[in-house]
Amino acid sequence: MPGMRMALLGAIATTIVIGIGVLIAIGPSLIQTLERTKPTPVMLSFSMVNGWNAPQWCNDLASVLQKHDVKATVFVTGEVAEQHPECVTAFASQGTDVGSQTYRYVNLNAVADYQYALEEVRMGKEAVDRAGNIDSHVFRAPFGETNQDIYSLLSSSDITADFSYTTQYNKYEGDQFVKHDLVSCDCRDEPERIEQLLKLDLPIIINIDNNTAVGEIESLIVSLKEKEMSLVSASELTETDLTVEGASA
Length: 249
Known about the structure:
Layout: H1 2-37, E1 41-48, H2 56-67, E2 73-76, H3 78-83, H4 86-92, E3 97-100, H5 114-132, E4 134-136, E5 138-139, H6 150-156, E6 161-162, E7 168-173, E8 176-181, E9 183-186, H7 191-198, E10 204-209, H8 214-226, E11 230-232, H9 234-238, E12 243-245
Parallel strand pairs: 1-2, 1-10, 1-11, 2-3, 5-6, 9-10
Antiparallel strand pairs: 4-12, 6-7, 7-8
């Protein structure tokens, strides 16, 4: 009886060893296959470039995102956040990231004074945080314009993710901002353009501002979901919690 038990245990051990060997052999190729079949992440990036149609546009957009169970990222100026706090609360309460884009939607590349630029970045974040009772760490420069001080401005303002560019986003890792490649387009681009981007196997950012009708945005969302795209927020894309609720300073 003890001999049979030992033989059984030996057979089990042998099976386990063989199984581990097979996993080691096929593991890398299996991981590569899974990565290839993983949907391309698409981030809808909304920007309140002015307040002419706020808060109606924000409320309507938030309803559409909730209706289709879509996460996204919305960038709001400090002025709009102060005047229309619902443009922050409508999104943050449903898991969409809310980021800042300076206080007055200022072109940072045209600002020569560092302290003035820093004030714009800090005040923009602080106004968004107060409006939504959040701690936001994501930023997008107005007009996509930055200067050589951008990383200093962001790190000094407790911002850890930057989506100012068309070919990259920058994430604070360790003691520096690290570049991550992406591709981007405007929501008014031809559908063929988006189809071409999907073939590049890189995260896609679709930029949309509040001059775009919410009906057009909903049509785009429906089209992307029909293509089984993975619609993500900035937090999901960067794997970092960029909008912390109930944590404003």
